[in-house]
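Thread: Newbie trying to understand structure tokens

Hi all, I'm a second-year student working on a class project, and my supervisor (Dr. K.) asked me to get a predicted structure for one chain before our next meeting. I've only ever worked with sequences, so writing a 3D structure as a token string is new to me. If someone could post the tokens and maybe explain what I'm looking at, I'd be very grateful. Here's the chain:
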Amino acid sequence: MQRMIFVNLPVTDIEASTAFYERIGATKNPQFSSEDTSCMVVSETIFVMIMTHQRFRDFSPKAIPDAHRSAQVLLCLSAESREAVDATVASAETGGKADPCPKQDYGFMYGRSFEDPDGHIWEVMWMDPAALTGSATAEAA
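---
Reply by user tm_fold:
Sure, no problem. This is what the structure looks like when written as tokens:
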């Protein structure tokens, strides 16, 4: 079995956040969702569990920071192409915020970011597969 990741995020409006994540390409799994939690499936191995603050507190006694004012974590998803990076960020503009962090364009690697309605920052990046062998990074130097 492949390792999976479940990113748990506190949100203020479960319906608005569910709609936002659907706009950026995630699908809601009703089997693991309730009135205070939505299990958003990003891929076969990546899940975003968005939950109301009250439900989130069932898992952690720590204070929930305002992600609009402080960075708690930066999340990054890969994309298949530069165009897919741009399309994902464009779909996040409704209900979220595009490019809260500087765009990154190194030729062989391209990345942009967006904020969800609660201020959680997601990066979307594409890397040329040739860069994994080191040939693209040598050319860029």
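A couple of things are worth pointing out once you decode it. The two ends are 39 Å apart (CA to CA). The first strand starts at residue 5 and ends at 11. Feel free to ask follow-ups in this thread.
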